[in-house]
Specification:
The chain is built from ten helices and no strands.
Length: 258
């Protein structure tokens, strides 16, 4: 019994310490954000690395998700004689939920692990310590540009995912199944509200971008400077980011569409 209480106490203390370290790191990221934006070339280079290199998996995944939505949506709507509303179903599913959520999950697996591994390897190679010795803040030089690059890239990737997904639904619903072309687009245009649907989807993607990128930066900066520590940090990035995205999605959906 004593061993269990000791393990529980150690887990709580470690969790509180990690939470405090994360809060301080987030505050320091915000403080040093001005330097990241003044040296804009650092942030632009990271946007290219994070966003552009994630574009292929985002586009391909969005296309196949659109295919599935077009096929399943048609089979479901056909039961009620509402197959002409297929465009509305595909668009709302993507801009409200699937676009931001799936993009964030793919972003965590592709870009989040890359950020964590890169920062972790820099820590293991004592490059961050060398910056400190030269009076160069690693938070301003390394962490802040990557953090803001992820925050900027996520909404653009989510928008691309949703747009390609709608095109995939069009291919299956209109070109393969035979839904009326005009009904597909007119139902979508009349039923999708820019502020309530598209705007809330953008807000979700921004929140997910902040959460996923900060977790990736934090895990890389806080990892043990060993190969095992870096590998464990990348695993924690994927797991923590995925669970955080799903939890935040529920909270934001309850607040936006209640």
């Amino acid at each position: 019994m004593t061993g269990i209480l000791q393990a529980l106490g150690r887990w709580i203390v470690d969790g509180v310490a990690k939470l405090g370290f994360g809060a301080r790191l987030f505050g320091q990221l915000l403080v040093h954000s001005g330097i990241a934006f003044r040296r804009l070339q650092l942030t632009i280079a990271q946007i290219h690395f994070i966003g552009n290199y994630s574009l292929v998996i985002i586009v391909i995944s969005g296309l196949f998700v659109g295919f599935v939505l077009g096929l399943q949506g048609y089979n479901t709507l056909q039961r009620y004689g509402s197959e002409q509303a297929l465009g509305l179903l595909v668009a709302l599913s993507l801009v409200r939920e699937l676009g931001p959520v799936i993009t964030a999950l793919l972003f965590a697996g592709r870009a989040g692990t890359s950020i964590t591994a890169e920062i972790g390897l820099m820590k293991a190679g004592e490059q961050l310590a060398a910056m400190d010795m030269m009076a160069v803040s690693p938070i301003a030089r390394v962490l802040a540009p990557r953090f803001w690059a992820g925050v900027v890239s996520m909404p653009m990737l989510a928008a691309m995912f949703s747009a390609v997904g709608v095109f995939g639904g069009y291919i299956v619903g209109v070109m393969l199944i035979g839904v009326d072309d005009g009904a597909f687009w007119s139902q979508m245009q009349n039923g999708v509200d820019w502020l309530e649907d598209v705007g809330n989807g953008v807000i979700k993607s921004v929140v997910f971008g902040i959460a996923v990128t900060f977790i990736a930066v934090f895990e890389g900066y806080a990892c043990q400077p060993t190969p095992e520590g870096v590998s464990h940090a990348t695993t924690r990035t994927v797991v923590s980011s995925s669970l955080t995205v799903l939890a935040l999605d529920f909270i934001l959906t309850a607040l936006m569409f209640s």
